């Protein structure tokens, strides 16, 4: 038996020898618990719910020994909107000490409560289509087993833009709304291998096969779990895949490039430029200090114009793709001028080759005589007509005489056959390329069934089990077309989780039907098949005698010509509303659009000062709805969601969408809807619009806007009057969406001379990744016109020769909510 000692003190004179706590200890324990329970009441909670409290009823009375039940409050009822962070706050008073307490949800759409076992819990308001009450209960139990509770109601309204419009500006920083923060994630030249040296950014750096490339464009985030496996729900670790479209070549070399126009080019300069193109895949993680990339990750990878690739689909093995490198036309090297992108539900990247034709040397004065009439039709239609190539890479004399990495850029027919030279090398570019971002051992695959063009993007429509999936593609050049590829294979949902992801790509992307769009004046449209033997796509066509389906997809532009597709104002990115399946297409601008050739889908030709020329200088965004809301449809309806313009332009014939200082813009380019895994991509998804503009840059740097865009047909018809240079007028009746008003708002303005391009988020929508391309593109090594990203910190003491770099920024809402809402 344990004996307890008793003794006299000046303080506590009770000497009862038991295990009971002393009076002082009881008081201390009670107030310690009470302080803990009362802590954490936030200003955010008060702002949402006000200062009043809702008192709980004491349902339990007492325990018969005089102990009273706790008194619980759960705050007053309040309201919020979808996607915003909501804080629940309770208080408890009790004489007996609280043992347990917790928040639970009583009714309404189910949400995930954070810190539910504390007095202050949070949740993200769910997506709703109408005002919806959510009821929550807070329950506390004391040491005597007595319990009390209180309830509060949160009324959630549909999603709304949750920020004040950013003003137009020409600052050398990324400007975002109040309540948001910006940080730099990756930049041109950042090393992605452990042994690669830090980037000096003085033009002396090498080894770009192990660095982030230049002109970062479209990007996509692929989740990773703690074990390094694919996890589509991971918000703190993933892979960021980004295209690298082109170069600010003047900043890559110490004193600018040597003989860049005609050559001969130094080998070291040319290899640096080549490797700075392509695609990067890097691991990114969120830690206590924010987001960062992992330099030594085993996932990190560069795909450059020298990376081996496979040719798949109808053109595989065809004579049109035979080269000295691949005499059986089944393989090639690399990808270039990668612009917009797409993704698949089996977690692969679709990167798209855009302005590839200009990289090749083919002086017509020498080469035309070596070509057939049919070859010349194709080469001229695709623009393979450069005397030296964009960077004169074919002029390099390599130290290794057997190397052909420079020779392949010479597209002249100089050998005895196609297998002896690189006359067909241009036919190996202009495709959609599929990459498995999780497996660097797998060679990328060029999906020739999707056609060859200036591929701006390849965005998927909804994947529905048992239905053939579709992919929407713009051809980025003036007066080119909108395309759709429909797989021959109906979707099987289990394929989304297959281990061999590129094999699933073989299943859905190598066989199917390629279509091109024709837009009718009455708001209807047709998908015209580009299939050998159908319509005008035949071996007897007078313009171009097609030989087979490989010939059709390799020369998809010519097939679209003969089928009678609608010529558009530079079709760029496509994006598909994840809820209703409607497709959006940016038509960036068109300097050759005239009053005489304006049509209902491209209805404006005007003068926008200070320019003295006429055309569609500011661009517009078109949208379409498939008949029957199915990807397999061969017809659709369409209208124009928004006409880009300055708010000061004529509202009758130019600023048709009534844009204001809060949302006027020019040359829409990038497009992206919020992910369906969070409220920004549910019910009424949020649309992000990015600009690549030269017409509005006297007023502002390029920008990104957020919008709730409505639906096809929510407006009506409008008659546009266009005036030609000689003063004559003509009219066009077009289909216009409802005026966007405050549902379109400027969210971001970039640094000097940049393009805003590339956007994606983590699955929860709380982290947004945005690409900043070619800041300071008009400068020189001696006099850069931008110092971004070094200027992002606001320093005014940067050296005058600080070179700008393309990069990716991370944008987060300071309260942790969903970006934009």
Could you describe the largest sheet, including whether it forms a barrel?
Answer: 9 strands, antiparallel
Strand arrangement within the widest β-sheet reads 21-22-24-25-26-33-32-29-28
Amino-to-carboxy terminus distance: 67 Å
CATH topology of the largest domain: Neuraminidase
Low-confidence stretches: 1-60
CATH second-level architecture of the largest domain: 6 Propeller
| Overall spatial form | globular
The beta-strand count equals 42
Sheet-strand content, in percent, reads 25-35%
Write down the domain tally: 3
CATH-assigned homologous superfamily of the largest domain:
TolB, C-terminal domain
Radius of gyration: 31 Å
CATH level 1 name of the largest domain: Mainly Beta
The percent of residues in helical segments reads: under 10%
So how many helices? 9
Which structural class do the helices and strands define? mainly beta
The pLDDT mean sits at: 92
């Amino acid at each position: 038996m344990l004996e307890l000692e008793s003794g006299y003190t000046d303080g506590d004179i009770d000497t009862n020898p038991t295990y009971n706590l002393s009076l002082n200890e009881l008081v201390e324990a009670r107030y310690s618990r009470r302080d803990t329970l009362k802590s954490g009441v936030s200003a955010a909670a008060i702002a949402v719910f006000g200062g009043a409290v809702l008192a709980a009823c004491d349902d339990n009375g007492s325990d018969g020994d005089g102990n009273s039940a706790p008194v619980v409050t759960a705050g007053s009822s309040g309201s919020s909107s979808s996607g915003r962070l909501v804080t629940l706050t309770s208080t408890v008073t009790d004489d007996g000490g609280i043992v347990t307490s917790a928040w639970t949800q009583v009714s309404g759409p189910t949400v995930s409560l954070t810190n539910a076992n504390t007095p202050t819990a949070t949740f993200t308001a769910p997506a709703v289509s109408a005002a919806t009450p959510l009821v929550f209960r807070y329950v506390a139990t004391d040491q005597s087993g007595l319990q009390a509770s209180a309830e509060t109601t949160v009324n959630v309204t549909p999603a709304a833009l949750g920020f004040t419009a950013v003003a137009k500006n020409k600052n050398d920083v990324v400007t975002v709304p109040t309540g948001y923060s910006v940080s730099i994630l990756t930049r041109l030249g950042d090393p992605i291998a452990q042994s690669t040296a830090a980037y000096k950014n003085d033009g002396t750096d090498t080894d770009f096969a192990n660095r982030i490339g230049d002109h970062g464009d479209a990007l996509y985030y692929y989740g990773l779990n703690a074990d390094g496996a694919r996890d589509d729900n991971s918000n703190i670790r993933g892979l960021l895949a980004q295209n690298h479209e082109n170069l600010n070549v003047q900043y890559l070399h110490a004193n600018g490039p040597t003989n860049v126009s005609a050559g001969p080019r130094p080998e070291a300069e040319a290899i640096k430029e080549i490797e700075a193109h392509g695609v990067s895949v890097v691991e990114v993680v969120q830690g206590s200090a924010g987001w960062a990339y992992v330099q030594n990750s085993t996932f990190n990878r560069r795909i450059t114009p020298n990376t081996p690739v496979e040719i798949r689909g109808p053109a595989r093995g065809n004579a049109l793709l035979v080269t000295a490198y691949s005499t059986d036309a089944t393989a090639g090297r690399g990808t270039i001028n990668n612009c917009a992108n797409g993704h698949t539900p089996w977690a692969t990247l679709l990167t798209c080759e855009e302005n590839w034709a200009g990289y090749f040397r083919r002086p017509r004065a020498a080469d035309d005589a070596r070509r057939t009439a049919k070859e010349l039709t194709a080469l001229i239609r695709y623009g393979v007509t450069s005397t030296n190539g964009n960077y004169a890479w074919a002029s390099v004399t390599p130290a290794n005489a057997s190397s052909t990495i420079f020779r392949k850029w010479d597209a002249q027919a100089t050998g005895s056959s196609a297998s002896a030279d690189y006359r067909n090398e241009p036919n190996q570019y202009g495709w959609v390329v599929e990459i498995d971002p999780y497996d660097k051992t797998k060679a990328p695959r060029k999906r020739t069934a999707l056609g060859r063009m200036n591929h701006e993007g390849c965005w998927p429509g909804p994947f529905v089990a048992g239905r053939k999936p579709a992919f929407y593609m713009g051809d980025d050049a003036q007066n080119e077309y909108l395309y759709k590829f429909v797989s021959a294979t109906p979707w099987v949902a289990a394929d989304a989780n297959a281990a061999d992801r590129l094999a699933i790509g073989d299943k859905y992307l190598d066989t199917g039907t390629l279509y091109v769009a024709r837009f009718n004046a009455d708001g209807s449209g047709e998908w015209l098949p580009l299939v050998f033997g159908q319509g005008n796509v035949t071996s007897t066509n007078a313009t171009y005698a097609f030989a087979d389906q490989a010939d059709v997809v390799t020369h998809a532009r010519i097939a679209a010509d003969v089928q009678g597709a609608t010529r558009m104002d530079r079709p760029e990115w496509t994006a598909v509303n994840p809820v209703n399946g409607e497709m959006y297409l940016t038509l960036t601008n068109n300097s050759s659009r005239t009053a005489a050739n304006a049509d209902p889908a491209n209805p404006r030709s005007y003068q926008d000062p200070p320019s003295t020329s006429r055309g569609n200088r500011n661009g517009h965004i078109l949208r379409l709805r498939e008949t029957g809301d199915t990807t397999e449809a061969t017809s659709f309806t369409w209208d124009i969601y928004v006409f880009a313009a300055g708010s000061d332009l004529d509202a009758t014939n130019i600023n048709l969408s009534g844009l204001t200082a809060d949302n006027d813009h020019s040359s829409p380019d990038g497009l992206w809807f919020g992910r369906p895994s969070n409220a920004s991509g549910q019910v009424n998804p949020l649309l992000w619009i990015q600009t690549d503009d030269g017409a509005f840059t006297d007023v502002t740097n390029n920008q990104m806007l957020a919008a709730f865009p409505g639906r096809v047909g929510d407006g009506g018809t409008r008659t546009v009057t266009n005036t030609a240079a000689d003063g004559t007028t003509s009219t066009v009746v077009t289909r216009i969406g409802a005026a966007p008003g405050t549902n379109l708002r400027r969210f971001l303005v970039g640094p000097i001379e940049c393009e805003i391009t590339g956007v994606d988020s983590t699955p929860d929508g709380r982290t947004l990744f945005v690409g900043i391309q070619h800041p300071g593109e008009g400068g020189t090594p001696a006099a850069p016109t931008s110092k971004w990203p070094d200027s992002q910190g606001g320093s005014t003491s940067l050296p005058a020769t600080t070179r700008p770099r393309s990069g990716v920024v991370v944008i987060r809402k300071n309260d942790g909510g969903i970006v934009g809402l």
